[in-house]
Structure formats: C-alpha cells, structure tokens
Amino acid sequence: MGLLDGLQNIVGDALSGKPVDLMAVAGQVFQNAGGLDGIVSQLNQAGLGEQVSSWIGTGSNLPISEDQIKTALSSETLRNLAQSFGVDMNQLPQILAEHLPKMVDTASPNGALPS
Q: For the chain, how many structural domains are there in total?
C-alpha cells in the first residue's frame, strides 16, 4: 500500500469516527504546505498566531474553525490535499479544523518546533 492509499484510509477513518494516525496526516498536510514551518507561516500570516502558539506550546490547544482553515490555506493547497485524501474539497476544512491542532501539537513535543 502506498502513502496516498494510507492517507485515504486515515481520512476515511476520520470521516467514520475511527481513530486517526495524526502523524501520518500531519506529514501529508505539512509536506503540501511547505513543511511544518510552511503551514505555521501560512496560519500566522492569516492572523492565527494565537492558535498556532497554543498548539506548539505545552498548554491547551485553541480551536480553529473551518472558515479559518479556508482563509489560511490557499484553494490550491486545499484542492491538492482533498485529491490526495480522496475526499470532497468541502469536507477537508472540517477534517483539518478537527485534527490540525492535535497534529501540530504532536509534531512539536516539549512546546517547540523541530529544528
């Protein structure tokens, strides 16, 4: 099974309420958005620095809405991710809004981004 097949299964699991491998999803999201630094940069540029800081920090994760996802990530990024995951582009912001805070939190152990 290839990487994209695995990601499609992960997104399918997310849509059906099964446990999700956040690091696998994070890898694909970050790769398509210029790495972890790229997605953090896009979110910060969209005015979501407070949320991002909470995900990277060691405290509670602030939520992000579907509309904030749509504003922060380009249509091209969303379209590419939706195609990679095999989901409708309209479903992707909901999936990312639910899982992105946990993905960034998991990818930044001890409250710091990897170097």
A: 1
Per-residue pLDDT of 13-29, as tens digits, reads: 665 655 555 556 666 66
Positive or negative, the CA dihedral 103, 76, 41, 92 is: negative
Q: Is residue 114, in this structure, part of any structural domain at all?
A: no
Residue 115 lies in a domain: no
| pTM of structure | 0.69
**Length of the chain in residues, anyone?**
115
Residue for token digits 């790229």?
38
**CA distances from residue 68 to 20, 45, 76, 98, 100 in whole angstroms, order as listed:** 22, 12, 16, 12, 12
- Do the domain assignments include residue 38? yes
Domain assignment of residue 66, given as a range: 3-107
